[in-house]
Each structure stands twice: as C-alpha cells, then as structure tokens.
Amino acid sequence: MKLGYQTNTWGGVVGHPAGVTSVKDSYYLAYGSTEEALKDISEAGYDGFEIFDGNLMEYKDKKDEFLKLMNEHSLTLVGVYTGGNFIFPDILEEELIKIESVASFASEVGAEHLVIGGGAVRANGILESDYTALGNALNKVVEIAEKYHLVASYHPHLGTNVQAPEQLDKLMPLTKINLCPDTAHIEAGGGDPVAVIRKYVDRIKYVHFKDYANGDFLPLGEGHQKFDEMVKALEAANYDGWITVELDSYPDPKQGAKISRSYLNQFDKVNQA
C-alpha cells in the first residue's frame, strides 16, 4: 500500500466564488499554497498527493510548472477530488462537462483516481428518487473517467444525501462506481468504517484515512478510529493501492501530516509499492 496526503489542509476547505453563478466553475478550492503543500507533504514522508479540482485547474495553462513542481518533490498525483449536485436534471449536463474538463487535465498530469463527492440535499428533504438520479449520474462519471483512463470512486460526505450508512446502502446497488471510504466521514455520519470497508471491499480501489473523536477530524492516532482493523481488512482483500490521509484543517498542516505518517509506520504493508 502506498501513502498519499490531501493538499486541502493547507488553506482549509472553501469553494470557488465563480461557482455561485456558473456551474462550470463550481470547484472545490483550498486557499493555501499548493507549492507549500507539496513541499511539506514530501518532507513529511509521503509518496503522493490528492488535490481539489479547483486547485488543480489553477494550473490548466501552467502544465509544465505543475509537472516540474511534482518532479522537484518526487511526488505522484494520486487523484483529484471533484463533484456535483447530481440530482437536478437541468444542470446535470453542465456538471458533467465540468467534471470532464477536470478529468482530462488530471489525466494529462498523471493522475490515477477521480474522487467524486456529492448528492444534493433538497430544501424540503431527500426524495427516494434522488438515489436513482445520483446513481445514474455517477455511472456517467464512470464513463468519463474511463475515457481518460482514471479510476472513479464515490466519496460519502457529511452534508450530502449519502452521509449515513443506510444512505450508502441505498446508493451502492444503483451505480457501478467504486467506493472511496472516508473513514471519519463514515463515522461522523453514524456508520462503522471497519464494517463499511469489509462490506464493500470488492469495490474499493482507493481509501481516505482520517481520525475522529468528539466531533473533530484529527491526525491519525489522535482519535479512536480502528485503523489496525481497517488495514487488516484491506490486506485480506489483497488491496495494494493508495491510502490517502485527509485532514480538512489543522493549525500546523505539516505537523499534522507528520503525526499521521509516524502513526502509519506500525503497519508493515503500508508504503510498500
């Protein structure tokens, strides 16, 4: 298993301001320095990184600069995180066009994974039909990803219509997309991340680790998540892909990355390509 880290800790999670009015610019964005993030991630001992679509697309016209930056720090672009509302048919085509533009550029700069978050919650509550709409939209995302030789995975997330375990169980039979379990979001949504990994391990091609306790997302080892059981479940399924540590915010991003990297040293098969 190989180790990556998400750049969103540097600057925190925000959104692209143009996305308020234009779906084509409705990117996830961290306001920190990508250059600083990659330097720190490399120095903390990781081999790869994941990045928000908005931060990646800032390099759309500076491709050589981005490739040079990765090369300088000996890092692999593991994946890019993107998403959409997915349940509103009037804007779905626009959302998919945006996702395809992200997938195309991500492929050009060597990404392996396309991570998808989303599934809107309506003002008047979730409809059962929203899960079918989301599943169908995610199938279209899979087709886009395959066009650019990327592995698409759905990422359950707080604030979407797939945050609770029963919601995930509604979605998964309705779509062919892989699952990227975010262990802390699963627990925060009322689920057991170990049970989710065991249940869907045949559809897991990529994993997000973050720790959790008392409503807070934490560096690995500082919460109560059972990462030893998760790693065992992945090993039993011969998982040999990337584990990316994601921590939405931390006062000292580099120190947070180092804490998690030190914690992962206990697992023999982690960080073995």
Automatic annotation (TrEMBL):
Name under which the protein is recorded: Sugar phosphate isomerase/epimerase
Keyword Isomerase assigned: yes
Membrane-spanning intervals of the chain: none
Gene3D superfamilies associated with the record: Divalent-metal-dependent TIM barrel enzymes
GO MF term list: isomerase activity
Domain of life: Bacteria
UniProt lineage: Bacteria, Bacillati, Bacillota, Bacilli, Bacillales
Keywords from the named record: Isomerase
Xylose isomerase-like TIM barrel domain boundaries: 39-265
